[in-house]
Write a structure and sequence with these properties.
Blueprint lengths: L2 H19 L4 H5 L4 H8 L3 H9 L11 H26 L4 H8 L3 H11 L13 H13 L10 H14 L3 H13 L4 H6 L1
Protein name: DUF2857 family protein
Organism: Enterobacter agglomerans
InterPro entries: DUF2857 (IPR021364)
Length: 194
């Protein structure tokens, strides 16, 4: 172990000793130290502490928990993807209701994110798709209907985001239209027959 890391580890040991001397033993308990180890640390003198802190030999060892690291990296990437989807949905005109449904964001969180991103929202009812836009959206949605997409799934949201971008329309209008289709039990097969 290099000298700087040894000293950092020994500095951490000093923190434990100082906590013990102040009567706080929970941190040592949580770290799994035995009663004998805690007693040894608690009985250290200033000279003992000085010697150990300046030693190049570390009494602590560090190791990376590979499972925890992998789990945390996965969670970090998932959270980054989630934040990107939130920003994308807001930029495409996602309503407060939509943002709460898919991301669990409250209205004040949505308003703050919009303000930070410089997104202006028009008050009042959202836009309704024209017949041409509805038909174009249906073609996009029906292409993927064989996967039995639902508007409340991650895949459904991704497709609605893509459709809103391609058609240059509000994500909320896309979502409301798809919800209406689902409420009417429309599928690609029934729409083709109509």
């Amino acid at each position: 172990m290099n000298t700087n890391l040894s000293r950092a580890a020994n500095g951490f040991l000093l923190d434990l000793v100082m906590e013990l001397k102040n009567g706080f033993i929970r941190r040592c308990d949580k770290m799994g130290l035995t009663s004998e180890e805690i007693a040894t640390l608690k009985d250290m003198t200033i000279e003992d502490i000085h010697y150990i802190i300046n030693s190049e030999v570390s009494v602590l060892s560090f190791q990376i928990n590979q499972d925890n690291l992998a789990r945390l990296m996965t969670q970090a990437r998932e959270e980054q993807t989630r934040k990107q989807r939130i920003d994308r949905a807001l930029a495409l005109g996602g309503s407060i209701k939509l943002m709460e449904h898919f991301f669990g964001l409250m209205s004040n969180d949505v308003a703050a994110r919009r303000r930070i991103a410089g997104i202006k929202v028009r008050a009042g009812r959202g836009t309704v798709l024209s017949d041409e836009q509805s038909t174009e959206l249906w073609e996009i949605w029906a292409t993927n209907d064989n996967k039995t997409l639902r508007s409340d799934s991650d895949e459904g949201l991704d497709l609605m985001l893509l459709a809103a971008e391609q058609m240059d329309i509000s994500l909320t209008a896309v979502w409301n239209t798809v919800l209406r289709w689902e409420n009417e039990n429309l599928t690609a097969a029934t729409r083709r027959r109509a």
